[in-house]
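Why does residue order matter? Because the sequence determines the fold. Keep that principle in mind as you read this record.
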Amino acid sequence: MTLLDVQNVTVNFGGIVALNGLSFSIEEGHICGLIGPNGAGKTTMFNVVSRIYQPTSGSVLYRGTELLSVPAHGIARLGIARTFQNLALFPTMSLLENVMVGAHSQGRIGFGRAISRIGAAADNRRTRDFAGDLLTQLGLGALAFRPAAGLPFGTLKRLEIARALASRPNLLLMDEPAAGLPHGEVDELGLTIQGIRDQFQLTVLLVEHHMSMVMSISDRVVAMEFGRKIADGTPAEVQADEAVIESYLGSPT
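Structure:
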């Protein structure tokens, strides 16, 4: 079943065409890698799906519903979460508190009950327990009460994944999660992404420059150049595509 269907999306910034009639779809439960050189429009596409940008034209269907009519603050409740290339964490808060922030969008306490505190304590306990479980599953349980500031970059990358998972998403957008990681940690991260996809029954849209990781974990790969799609298929099909070889992977010697 198709979870996300991008149809002829175009984004213009003045005279600059950031996306040019881009179309692709993602099947539920798949990892889809979005690749291309810098400036290809990958992050712009992420910003359309997460409702930061409104496209000039086109349609984005999420489970058959038009996503472009949903405001940015309504994305999390639909089941869409995102990680960022530049970490967007709260450095003075503990790891546990950072993850609890991610669970806020799924809280069951309404405005009136929150003011009166009726049921809020029980909801906070459930959120804390769930956040703690996520940290443990990502190997961060021992650090739950440490502030985020000063921790290794790879640890903070895992923390941001845990915070995104706290909103209980169906679709997880990952913007260059391996950026800045050493080679050994990139391989480990790839296994982590596959593991959370299976464990949490996620669909993942992944933007990443580490081609070996993308090709090893993705079910489908979409290659972009200058805002348009140049290839779409299995990793093997995209790797063999002449346009991809020439524009991104490098011409064969």
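The chain has a mean pLDDT of 88.
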